[in-house]
Amino acid sequence: MDAWVTLLATVVGAAIAMLGQHLMKRAEDRTRLSELLLEQCALVAASAADFENRIWEEAVLGMDDRVNGFDLAAHRRSSVRLQILTRDPALHAALEELNEAGKHLGSYWRRGDVDDDEYTRRYNQHHTAIAEFLDVSGEAVRRRLTSA
To answer: Is the pTM of this model over 0.70?
Structure first.
């Protein structure tokens, strides 16, 4: 009888240890995904702000070829990574709005012969899209971290 109790205790102990390892790995994976989400949100926001600053440098400071030096491929990679990492519809919508505002601002600026009012409207639209993206992405990251 003692052998059976010992055997049962051993099996139960092993099952508890395996369950604990599984739960810890799952929590670590969720934390890692949260960190990746935070990193991609930060890269997208920083890239959009860099683009905006480059346009401002050309418009206000008269610097040349600042917009041409913008790394659009890196911005696109970060946007795609973000779309892969989350299914959050609000975050996807904010990302889409930010990218569309960036396209409108960039294409208008690259045409040359810029009307100040139209430039200001597009610049402000892009600036507002960055702020909205930061708000929505901050909420998404906080939700992910609290559920991790």
So the answer is: yes
